[in-house]
Amino acid sequence: MAIERTLSIIKPDAVKGQHIGQIIARFEAEGLRIAGARLCQLSRREAEGFYAEHSARGFFGELCDFMTSGPVVVMALEGDDAIARNRAIMGATNPANAEPNTLRKLYAASVGENAVHGSDSPAAAAREIAYFFRSIELS
Q1: Which of 53, 69, 111, 115 has the fewest Cβ atoms nearer than 10 Å?
Q2: Structure confidence by residue, pLDDT tens digits, 72-101
Q3: How many Å is the maximal CA-CA distance in the chain?
Q4: Is the pLDDT of residue 1 over 90?
Q5: pLDDT tens-place string over residues 16-27
Q6: Catalytic residue selected from 10, 98, 117, 125
Q7: Which of 72, 55, 102, 76 is nearest to 4 (CA)?
């Protein structure tokens, strides 16, 4: 297995629902180490920049509205096969289709408000982590 990093975001719905602690505890219980973390409020410009690859899709405006609706927790997670492991822990994008005990099954209300984000590839992880963290901020 390869040690890698991935970006995770605890989205506004999960922050508002006071699930930060449970989500972080789950990552740590599954062997992912938090290499960097912070609570922040995304501006519209930051949300649009982060999700720029989706700008032509019909849900882009609604996604940016949601991601700026409240605080988020951004984290760089590290561990063996961190990207795949984080995606398995999160579960399917649609919580109705997510496996039992995945974060989205436990904490998400809908496809649009689905509690967490995770990088989907090594290239995305590198870009997304760099979007939120300077290298000096990661341990």
Answers
A1: 53
A2: 999 999 999 999 999 999 999 999 999 999
A3: 39
A4: no
A5: 999 999 999 999
A6: 117
A7: 76
DSSP string, 5-72: EEEEEE-HHHHHTT-HHHHHHHHHHTT-EEEEEEEE---HHHHHHHTGGGTTSTTHHHHHHHHTSS-E
Please give the structure tokens belonging to residue 124.
């995305």
How confident is the model at residue 2, as a pLDDT? 79
Q: What φ, ψ does residue 75 adopt, rounded to 5°? A: -140, 140
Question: Mind listing the domains of the chain with CATH numbers?
Answer: 3-42+72-134 (3.30.70.141)
Please give the DSSP secondary-structure letter assigned to residue 113: S
Contact predicate 130/6, CB 8 Å: no
Burial class (CB in 10 A: 0-12, 13-18, 19+), 14: buried
Give the amino acid at 136: I
How far apart are alpha carbons 54 and 45 in whole angstroms? 14
Does 19 qualify as catalytic in the annotation?
no
